[in-house]
Design goal:
alpha/beta, Rossmann fold, 2 domains, seven-stranded parallel beta sheet, six-stranded parallel beta sheet, 13 helices, globular
Length: about 350
């Protein structure tokens, strides 16, 4: 039987790979690996991301926080790695692709769009990624809106799906998971916040901290390294160490318990991980954030959204959810209604398999 080989390339910039983005990748890759279809995976990416998938063949590449080095990897090194691997297809889980690839490129955009990198190199990287993405053989995009046929036949919209462990039904270990980390019930969760947006989110938190910071902490899930250092620096600068708890290197299996015990998810910024908002809704957790088109499409009426950039309004929204039970109940109800189909969404493995049969088969 002919087995199709997929090379799945992950981002190499640690500023893009927040803990939230890593966990979204974890969910996606695990879903692809738990299938019995006719394809096999090889991961290409930094060890920090690939090390948790010991059973999947891996080609390790170094992290790079340089736009020039990221550009070189995506446009020059990656095609050579893919060719040497003998892969039949290159799968990119974010909006980027090499301009020249030895095999068909499939974009399955499970990760949110990263904030633009400043400077000439950043603009060149953005332009190359955009051009490469437009030249991909197929582009799969999760849609929280009613599915409609795209004008471009190469773009396919699919229903989002979340892991079945993200649900409202509590687990016996939920409380112990939070207590082990010295978190009281009803804390506010921050997850997958882009590094550029950390100051913005903490500025919003200062409005919450002044009222309930002594009893309701902000629990930020972060990775060890550049992400944790950015958070620690900003928390220290703003004098918020008493009410901001940094939870480092939380494993995927622990996420549902931490989500279920949260009183709200505080999102804010220009770059969002859509899947994280879906996890929150599936657990019945109200989401507060900025009213961007991306957030509105994912959350609909289940989000408490305010004008973009208004940190005072965002803090007030989060505080309202904490202190006004009727608002929290309404948002929870809307979230669960919207999330009711998340466990029935498109299976990534089946979607990829059907697509590969048409591309390679």
């Amino acid at each position: 039987m002919f087995v199709i080989k997929i090379a799945l390339s992950l981002p190499v910039d640690p500023r893009t790979l927040t803990h939230g983005a890593r966990m979204v990748c974890d969910e996606f890759i695990t879903a692809l690996a738990r299938q019995e279809h006719g394809f096999e995976l090889e991961l290409i990416g930094p060890e920090q991301v690939t090390r948790s998938f010991g059973s999947i063949p891996t080609f390790t590449v170094p992290e790079s926080a340089s736009a020039w080095r990221t550009l070189k990897f995506e446009q020059y090194d990656l095609p050579g790695i893919v060719k040497a691997s003998g892969a039949d297809v290159l799968l990119m889980p974010y909006s980027a692709a090499p301009l020249g690839s030895p095999v068909p490129v499939v974009l399955f955009e499970v990760l949110g769009r990263a904030a633009a990198v400043r400077g000439f190199a950043g603009r060149l990287l953005h332009a190359a990624r955009r051009a490469g993405a437009q030249g991909a053989a197929r582009r799969l995009i999760y849609s929280d809106l009613p599915i409609e046929a795209a004008n471009d036949p190469n773009i396919l919209t699919v229903r989002p799906r979340v892991h079945t462990s993200f649900r409202t039904l509590p687990d016996p270990d939920d409380r112990s998971s939070a207590s082990r980390r010295e978190l009281p019930p009803g804390y506010v969760l921050a997850h997958g916040v882009s590094l550029e947006d950390v100051p913005l989110l903490l500025a919003a938190w200062t409005w919450v901290d002044g009222s309930v910071g002594d009893t309701v902490p902000l629990a930020a899930l972060v990775s060890e390294g550049i992400e944790s250092r950015v958070w620690e620096d900003q928390v220290h600068r703003m004098g918020l160490a008493h009410s901001v708890h940094l939870l480092k290197e939380v494993e995927f299996d622990e996420l549902p318990a931490l989500y279920r015990q949260a009183g709200a998810l505080l999102q804010g910024g220009r770059s969002l991980e859509h899947q994280i908002m879906r996890w929150a809704m599936a657990c019945g957790v109200p989401v507060t954030g900025f009213d961007t088109p991306a957030a509105a499409d994912v959350l609909g009426p289940a989000g408490y959204l305010v004008a973009p950039g208004d940190t005072r309004a965002l803090g007030a929204a989060c505080l309202t959810v904490i202190v006004e039970p009727e608002v929290k109940v309404r948002l929870r109800k809307d979230a669960l209604m919207r999330a009711s189909a998340f466990h029935k969404g498109s299976d990534p493995a089946e979607t990829i398999n059907e697509l590969l049969e048409r591309l390679v088969g």
